[in-house]
Write a structure and sequence with these properties.
heterodimer, A: about 250 residues, mainly alpha, MetI-like fold, 2 domains, about 85% helix, elongated, B: about 240 residues, 10 helices, about 0% strand, globular
Chain lengths: ~250, ~240
């Protein structure tokens, strides 16, 4: 493993060095590619620009809203499907192929129905993020021991109380895992929507820098966003791994 | 009997989706959201238009190439990652990094490197499709049960016989799973690539239709893409579950 770490480090250093070299030697045009040092400079400059920070804040807050809505809808949907086995059986093939659908193609339609602004972006994000929570909820409910339901009956809990006091808390680790996964779906959908048809947000800022030939700023923004999103996604993956091993 | 029930339930879900669509169309207005019937009508006229057929052919061509490169490249990398531990430990994390990145932000880089045209959207499709195949193949190879390897040793199978008689059948269901992901991701990559910067293809037609508020065409294209992606994925899923059982 230590040897592998060294190889990883070596590969990264060689790649960065090669990038720096071919850019500094003028082998590629500065409108095509800029060296990493220039990207870092541009990222720092962008971090000091209030407008860019506002765009970044907007993207992050949109993702947060998407995840919150997706979590609620996903849990409710998962519990409902689990409660009616026939619905679940019917929906199962659709659930299995859900992430194969290019849901993103619906975004233009949502713009037409909901108007330009944050609403269609949130709707696209929720469409993407919701199903991972619903699937996790279903998986969690499947694993609940029968004795829990018996305990609920013995204590004469109503349907709602059984769900809110016993079933949902019992599969909380699974639901949390689903929500962690939904964060990465939310990022993909929100940034892609901003990129294509929006007037604000970090996705739009990158597209704008590309269209106005500000190559260095474009790479700087990409670097900043990339580092941030990859860190969040890898963190969430770790949370998920921790929860699944903890639950097993 | 059970099979008939499954079909019936599936049909019920499709009818429910169509009814919901019709209902939504009534609420927001047919000019904003054309109902299923109008969309089907537009679909029929669209199929008769030579421009649409050219766009469809352009998307199909880019998609098939992206799918082939993504699948073949992913398999080769996956075998290397799964077969040799040092290679896997060293380079697989880079693939995970690529999967975790929202790839749409990388599109300008692809455009700058490949230029405007078909190669950029193919590259974008490959960028979406290849990493998951590599990771899933590597996992499939790593999880081959040790008893299989021991049996091959006991029977003194040649490396070729081991690969064709044991390894391939053992990992095939997972490879089919990887292919399903590749199938969807390549389509997504090519379509988004066309939406952002292309002069041909269904993605471009989608953006052009948005520009002129041609909602029936938008819906007709979305319907084609959904039926193709959903149908293909369901068929692959069925093939994989038959293999497993």
């Amino acid at each position: 493993m230590i040897r592998a770490r060294w190889i990883q480090l070596g590969t990264a250093v060689v790649a960065v060095g090669a990038l720096e070299l071919i850019c500094r030697l003028g082998w590629v045009r500065p409108t095509t590619l800029v060296p990493l040092s220039a990207m870092v400079q541009a990222a720092i400059a962008a971090a000091q620009d209030p407008d860019t920070l506002a765009d970044f804040g907007l993207t992050l807050s949109t993702v947060a809203i998407v995840v919150a809505i997706a979590a609620v809808l996903g849990v409710v949907g998962g519990v409902a499907l689990h409660a009616v086995p026939r619905w679940r059986r019917a929906a199962e093939p659709f659930i299995a192929t859900y992430y194969a659908l290019p849901l993103f193609a619906l975004y233009p339609l949502l713009v037409v129905v909901l108007g330009v602004g944050t609403t269609p972006i949130i709707a696209t994000g929720v469409l993407y993020a919701m199903m991972s929570v619903a699937m996790a909820t279903l998986a969690g409910l499947d694993r609940i021991p029968a004795v829990y339901r018996k305990a609920a009956r013995v204590n004469r809990l109503g349907r709602v109380a059984t769900v809110t006091r016993i079933l949902v808390p019992a599969c909380a680790p699974d639901i949390a895992g689903g929500i962690a996964l939904s964060v990465s779906y939310a990022f993909v959908a929100v940034i892609a929507s901003e990129f294509l048809l929006a007037s604000h947000g970090i996705g739009h800022a990158i597209a704008d820098a590309y269209e106005t030939f500000q190559t260095q700023r474009m790479y700087g923004l990409m670097l900043g966003l990339g580092v941030c999103v990859v860190a969040i996604n890898l963190g969430m993956a770790r949370v998920r791994a921790h929860l699944t091993t903890g639950a097993a | 009997m059970k099979r008939a029930q499954t079909w019936l339930d599936g049909a019920a879900v499709i009818v429910a989706i169509l009814l919901a669509w019709q209902f939504l169309s009534l609420i927001v207005g047919a000019h904003v959201l054309p109902p299923p019937r109008a969309t089907a009508g537009r679909l029929v006229t669209l199929v008769g238009e030579p421009r649409f057929l050219a766009d469809l052919a352009s998307t199909a061509e880019a998609y098939v190439i992206a799918l082939a490169i993504g699948m073949a490249g992913g398999l080769v990398l996956g075998v290397a990652f799964g077969g040799w531990r040092l290679i896997g430990d060293s380079f697989e994390p880079f693939m995970h990094l690529l999967v975790a990145t929202p790839k749409v932000t990388l599109y300008p880089v692809i455009l700058l490197l490949f230029g405007l045209g078909d190669s950029a959207k193919i590259a974008f499709g490959v960028l979406h499709a290849l990493p998951p195949v590599a990771i899933m193949t590597a996992n499939a190879i790593r999880t081959v049960r040790p008893v299989h390897r021991k049996t091959a040793l006991t029977l003194r199978l040649s490396p070729t016989a081991y690969a064709t008689r044991l390894l391939v059948p053992a990992v095939l269901p997972d490879i089919l799973g990887a292919f399903r992901v590749c199938f969807a991701q390549a389509l997504l990559g090519v379509l988004v690539g066309e939406m952002f910067a292309s002069t041909r293809g269904l993605g471009h037609l989608l953006m052009a239709s948005i520009g002129v508020d041609d909602n029936p065409t938008i819906l007709a294209i979305v319907a084609i893409v959904f039926v193709f992606a959903g149908g293909g994925s369901a068929a692959l899923l069925a093939a994989a579950s038959r293999r497993k059982s």
